Amino acid sequence: MLVARHLAKAYGSGAVATLAIKDLSFEVGEREFITIVGPSGCGKTTLLKCVSGLLPPTSGEVLLNGRLVTAPPEEMALVFQEYGRSLFPWMRVDQNVRFPLRRKRLARREADRLVSESLAAVGLSEFAHHYPWQLSGGMQQRVAIARALAYQPQILVMDEPFASVDAQTRADLEDLLLSVWQRFAVTILFVTHDIDEAVYLGDRILVLTPRPTVLLEAVEVGLPRPRDQVATKELPEFAQLRAHVYLAIKRPAPATPSK
Amino acid sequence: MRRLWNLGLQLVVPAVVLLAWGLWSARAQNFFFPPLTDILASFRANWLFARVPSDVVPSLERMLAGYALAVLGGVFLGVLIGSSRPVRWAAGPPLEFLRAIPPPVLIPFAILTFGIGPQFKVFVIAIGCVWPVLLNTIDGVRGIDPTLRETARVYRVSALSRLFWVVLPAASPRIFAGMRNAVALALILMVISELEASTNGIGFFILQSQRSFAIPDMWSGILLLGLLGFAFNAAFVALERRVLRWHRAAQASALETAA
To answer: Which pLDDT does position A258 carry in this prediction?
Structure first.
């Protein structure tokens, strides 16, 4: 459903231009869970901004359902890493979740249903009338996920959404995401710098190189679902995949003094 | 206990000052500093409430009209200028120049243009008050977190919703700061504009009292202005506390997380 073809993005122009993405092509199938990993500083966020139509690519193209993406498409929702800065602090939790629905011109009852259903899905029904700043970081990110779900996207794009919460909260959020992915039948494109997370969540892992970024490898995960924080991570296949991705990321490092 | 102590101090100090002034002025036999009791007597004679309809109401009407124009114009232009970098750059130098002109020097021009009716006073008040509102709005709009803007774009929020639900609330702490500065300016310019080509108003009354050596009356007018300024500021602080509750709380919780 989502296709990126020879995507490239340079910042600046002429001699001072820096090439963030050199050449990226990939396809994402319906209801697939794709994770993207790469060394820090590779063009992961740039890639997502191009995919979501927030940034025009320098060359190449992104197609969603066969249509060229030039602006944020309505079938897509995005969850940012900085939950604290992507929720509107002057709106209550339910208002935050409802806000993107304004454009959809739904009946009030339908909008109510979407808001309460998605808040229930992330376990925040009781906090509908709180303000975001009254919640913990993990809860705020759940609000952001609820907001994305209420928008009823076909594809959910997530930019390191769990990078700034503690480890326990992170594991909970990963499992929460897997359950809503099943329930809401969405496609997910998930960027992370955490290899464990990429292996644990994904159907397929796109491994990127440092900038100028190209696709190094697409790794099929093939671990059984439903996944489990303990059982899945104990599987030998999990360890193999993890090591494989780890080495893949380290390998293309240019000839610098070894650490 | 500590709060009570602070409150006590805040009440005791003015009381002591008033008492000292009263005692001193009662004995001073100084024509320019009449006894406090005389001033209070003329305060009661003039402002409770004999001259309220003839002087206070016209003064406040003009002040309010000028202030309202300044807020509306300042916010409108501020959003326009703050939203676009080229406009901001182009508008910078002329704004800095215009802002540097002391508003009272526009009184002769305003009288020529608007005649000696209330319009010229409203104009002078509005011109003087627009700067803090305008410049703060520009800064507030420019300083909106890019993640908030991108969130609004991703969810395809319409331009009008974006203005009223994202841009204005996000800039509102700065807008309020500007509006609060403008209240003090409005009072000053109200008085100054009444010292020229006037037939009523608090400033006019003070000037007339001075010219007819009615010194206690003059002081009573000055006292009234002080009280009005104090009341306006207190009302504004209370309003700000209500409207910007989210802002204080969000900042407090951000600091907590950072610590």
So the answer is: 43
Domain of B96, CATH number, reads 1.10.3720.10
Task: Please state, in angstroms and rounded to a whole number, the distance separating the CA atoms of residues A208 and A37.
Answer: 6
Integer CA distances (angstroms), A159 to A4, A77, A111, A174, B136, in order: 17, 11, 26, 14, 33
Chain A nearest C-alpha distance from B179 (Å): 19
Q: B34: which 2 tokens?
A: 């009449």
Residue B217 belongs to domain spanning: 55-258
pLDDT in tens, A55-74: 999 999 999 998 999 999 99
State the pTM of this model.
Answer: 0.87
Q: Under an 8 Å CB criterion, which residues of B touch A? A: 145, 147-148, 150-151, 153-158, 161, 165-166, 169-170, 172, 246-247, 249-250, 252-254, 257
Point out which residues pair with A68 in neighbouring strands: A63
What pLDDT does residue B259 have? Answer: 53
Question: Are the C-beta atoms of B225 and B187 separated by less than 8 Å?
Answer: yes
User: Does residue A257 have a pLDDT over 70?
Assistant: no
Q: Which of B151, B158, B165, B251 to mutate to test the interface with A (most CBs of A within 10 A)?
A: B151
Question: What's the CA dihedral at B199, B201, B204, B208 to 10 degrees?
Answer: 80
ipTM of the complex: 0.88
- Which residues make Cβ contacts (< 8 Å) with residue A204, sequence separation at least 6? A32, A33, A34, A35, A218, A219, A220, A221
Per the structure, the count of domains in chain B is 1
Rounded Cα gap, residues B236 and B222, in angstroms = 21
Residues found in chain A: 259
**Pair A224, A192: CB distance under 8 Å:** no
Pairing of strands A76-79, A155-159: parallel
CA of A129 vs chain B CAs: smallest distance (Å)? 13
Does the residue B219 lie in any domain?
yes
* Residue B137 placed within a domain: yes
Which residue did the predictor score with more confidence, A81 or B185? B185
Where residue B258 falls among pLDDT bands split at 50, 70, 90? low
Given an 8 Å threshold on Cβ–Cβ distance, is B246 in contact with A131? yes
Q: Please check whether residue B26 lies inside any domain of the structure.
A: no
What is the predicted pLDDT for the residue at A97? 94
- Position B49 in a domain: no
